[in-house]
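We emphasize that the prediction below concerns an isolated chain of 218 residues; any contacts that depend on oligomerization or on bound cofactors are therefore not represented. The input was used exactly as deposited, without trimming of termini.
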Amino acid sequence: MFENFTKTKAYAILAGTFCALIMMSNILAAKTINYSFIILPCSIITFPALFIVNDLLSEIYGFKMAKMVIYLGFILNLFAVICYTIAMILPSNSPNSDAFAAILGTTPRLLFAGLCSYISSNIVNSKVLVKLKEKYYHLLFVRCMLSTAVGQTVDTVIFITVGFYGVLSLDLMINMIICLTLFNILYEFISYPLTRKVVLSIRKLDDGELKGQINQEN
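Result of the prediction step, given as a token string:
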């Protein structure tokens, strides 16, 4: 399977993984986890991994190629929502129709909040990592942690503010922003050894069809 593996093939796998994670995250977000004073969406299972894949794409292939995958994820996510909406509108005598709508349906406000936070946070995450790489090439850990911290903060602030302002109390909104951001940063910290191993492994691969499109210092 991995015979003659190149950066081109690795890019395809990372792009597919990124898009799959955003689709899963949106479905998992329909359920929340309540533990004591902590309230988190179940998308925390997959969404932090989205930023890790973003880091891999940005670190190895650069901002331009990472941005292409981010836009692709945005388009596929929007297309999925349109398909879910059409499916809910179509007549059905299925006993699971209400459950289907409860899980895959979303209000326009939350949809707008999710799309805005996704595109903004991932672009910022990628841009920050690439900019840091120009000055601190040998500090991969610092780049990954700082880019994730900035990206996740942007994501949670935009999503919680746009999606829940006027619905939840300010204290609860701040609590959710802090909990989500800290959890995602912790996720990145724990996953860093694997992230580093993947980065170093892909750097050693041949460029394949991507030759001339990515920075050769990678």
